[in-house]
């Protein structure tokens, strides 16, 4: 039986593929490799890219909402750790820059 069965976070195609370079066996069980032990080439070949984390979170939120951007925008799961970042921006970072004089000048304020 695929380990993906019943787990909404696992794409069954990941674990059904033979020779997935991002997986390894441990005590006879298929597990994900530690990212530090994966090759960049393998990550890229598997569709991963070096993006800012907020943009990666956005992709995960789209996945969570069946790729319906409007549903991500309206997400009511405010306790989800990804919720503040679901629009692809870090609001904490944005708030930090709002108070800086250089940004106040840019907005004409
Ligand atoms: S914030 Fe909402 S859309 Fe994003 S992962 Fe969490 S529950 Fe899903």
C-alpha termini separation: 61 Å
How much β-strand is present in the residues? 5-15%
Q: How many structural domains does the protein architecture include?
A: 2
Strand order across the biggest sheet?
1-2
Short description:
This protein is mainly alpha-helical. It is built from 6 helices and 2 strands, in the order H-E-E-H-H-H-H-H. Helix content is 39%, strand content 7%.
Task: Describe this protein's structure.
- The chain has 109 residues and is mainly α.
- The protein has 2 domains: 1-50, no CATH class; 55-109, no CATH class.
- Helix content is 39%, strand content 7%.
- The protein has helices spanning 12-16, 40-45, 53-64, 69-73, 91-98, 101-106, and strands at residues 23-26, 29-32.
- It has a two-stranded antiparallel ribbon.
- The chain starts with 11 loop residues before the first helix and ends with a helix.
Which key terms come to mind for this protein?
about 110 residues; mainly alpha; 2 domains; two-stranded antiparallel ribbon; 6 helices; 2 strands; about 5% strand; binds iron/sulfur cluster
List the helices and strands and how they pair.
Layout: H1 12-16, E1 23-26, E2 29-32, H2 40-45, H3 53-64, H4 69-73, H5 91-98, H6 101-106
Antiparallel strand pairs: 1-2
């Amino acid at each position: 039986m695929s380990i993906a069965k019943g787990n909404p976070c696992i794409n069954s195609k990941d674990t059904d593929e033979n020779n997935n370079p991002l997986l390894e066996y441990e005590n006879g069980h298929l597990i994900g490799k530690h990212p530090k032990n994966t090759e960049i080439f393998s990550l890229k070949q598997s569709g991963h890219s070096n993006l800012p984390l907020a943009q990666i979170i956005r992709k995960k939120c789209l996945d969570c909402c069946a790729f319906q951007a409007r549903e991500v925008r309206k997400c009511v799961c405010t306790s989800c750790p990804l919720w503040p970042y679901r629009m692809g921006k870090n609001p904490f970072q944005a708030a930090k820059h709002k108070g800086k004089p250089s940004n106040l000048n840019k907005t004409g304020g």
